[in-house]
Every structure is written in structure tokens, then in C-alpha cells.
Design brief:
globular; 110 residues; 3-stranded antiparallel sheet
């Protein structure tokens, strides 16, 4: 998950850390961008498992807040179904219409 300075600061505060300390522990460089580190298997380093969930959920980055409604997942029914095979949360919970998803994404954008 790509992150910016404001997101790093919010997550650091949520964990009681200075932004530099948080970045050292949880962030890596990917080209010119910064991303949250991943655990072996691809889980986010801030994912505390199904019982604990995301350690910074209330202040998670925009990219996390808009998942699974990313363009690549919404381009076709097949793309959505492939995601559902990998992500146990997809197709669970509230059903959203296309209009509701579009509105949601517009509200979450910076």
C-alpha cells in the first residue's frame, strides 16, 4: 500500500510513535514512492490477523480505505471473481451498486 507523509504521520500517531520511527519500522521505498512493508505471503505488516485486524484501521491510508473498489478489480465480473478467490472479505457484507461505489470513491479521494 502506497503511503504519503500525512498518512505516515497519522499512522505513527495511532501507534504512539514519531513519524521517522514508524517509517523505519513499517515503510519501504518502491522506486520514488513509499509503501507499507509486507509480511511473507503478502499481508500488510500492519495486519494483526483476523482476530486483531488492522493495527491502524481508523487512520489507514487512502489506498486501503478504497479497497476492494480499485479500477483493476472493477473492470469486469471476471476480475472481481478472481479477487474474491484470493480475498476472503470480497462478496461478504453489504452489497453496493455501481453508483454507490462511484460516490464512495469520490468521497475518499484526497
Amino acid at each position: 500500500m502506497f503511503v504519503n507523509d500525512a498518512e505516515i504521520s497519522r499512522m505513527a500517531e495511532a501507534l504512539g510513535q514519531a513519524p521517522d520511527e514508524f517509517a523505519h519500522s513499517y515503510v519501504r521505498r518502491v522506486g520514488w514512492r513509499r509503501s507499507l512493508k509486507e509480511l511473507p505471503g503478502g499481508d500488510c505488516i500492519l495486519w494483526g490477523g483476523h482476530q486483531r485486524g488492522c493495527l491502524v484501521y481508523p487512520v489507514r491510508p487512502l489506498q486501503c480505505r478504497t479497497f476492494p473498489f480499485w479500477r483493476q478489480h472493477l473492470k469486469s465480473r471476471a476480475a472481481w471473481e478472481r479477487l474474491g478467490e484470493r480475498c476472503p472479505g470480497v462478496n461478504k457484507g453489504q452489497l453496493y451498486s455501481a453508483a454507490e461505489i462511484k460516490q464512495y470513491l469520490m468521497m475518499k479521494s484526497p
